[in-house]
Amino acid sequence: MTPYWGFPDHIRGPADAKVTLVEYGDFQCPYCGQAEPVVRALLANFGDPRYVWRHLPLTDVHPNAALSAEAGEAADRPRAFWPMHDLLLQHQQELRPVHLVRCAADLGLDVDQFREDLRRPCRRRPGGDDHLGSQ
Hints:
Helix content is 42%, strand content 11%. The protein has helices at 30-45, 65-76, 81-90, 97-106, 111-119, and strands at 10-12, 20-25, 50-55. Helix 2 (65-76) runs antiparallel to helix 3 and helix 2 packs across helix 5 (111-119).
């Protein structure tokens, strides 16, 4: 699968699954938050599907979306993307840097390293090499 926005795909489930569900998600999007319990029910009741999360931060309407995607990536470095994913969707109204750092602490991540990772964004614009910049 081709990553979007320069972020890697995050995948749950077997590579040889008969069904793959791909979600283009934005941690600040209320519809993504509302869809989460439905997605979980589908995954729980549909055998052994593969689920792919692709970041699609809608920065024109969600000012904290890009930084929240970066927080997911910073949490992935110590292999905690999915727990961070769950926390961010549960706390969509609390996605400013102070809240993201608190989520990292709640997950037991190295907070200093997490902060440093947020200062060095990994994402790139589609079709370009320039960083979107940290917020």
